[in-house]
Amino acid sequence: MIQDPGRGISAGSQDEPSEVEERSEVEASGDETPSDKEDSAECEAVDSADDIELLRGQAQDNHDKFVRAAAELENYRKRAAREVENARRYGLERLAQALLPVRDSLEAGVASADQADVEALLDGKKATLRLLDAALEHVGIEELDPEGEPFDPSKHEAMTLAPSDTAEPNTVLTVVQKGYAIHDRLLRPARVIVAREPEEDEG
Questions:
Q1: Which domains does the chain have, with CATH numbers?
Q2: Does the reported pTM lie above 0.70?
């Protein structure tokens, strides 16, 4: 039996790849040449170097900021220490300046005591007392003289209770010793006698 030449060629083309197909497969597999790989590696190296340089710059900036912040903190600490020391040394300067006229007045009174009469000495003491009150007021020291006011245990110290027909119970009947406060802080409570209701058999 004679084979059809056309069919034989067709069958052969299906079983064995043609030369054109082999060439295209070789070209497809050889698209990335060694030169291309080298270029890609160089680009990656350049990118890595840029990243490292950028990170180094950021690290240096952060270090500079830290050094500046540490220096500012140290300066602040030194200033605060100086201010505390100055407050400790010179905090009483205002009070001292306010008390100097009081001392001058007392010194003048003592110097003239031999020539002054009783009335003059009394006037001198009253003037000195006024100077002292002004000095205390100047530095924020307030006098507590609570006679007739309700008894306040946070500001007053009760010496005793005394019956009274005129004063309200639990009010200050008599001030034995005045108290003092400075800027809402108690320096010394006022010592007082507190009124209470009289007992029936006391009438």
A1: 142-203 (2.30.22.10)
A2: no
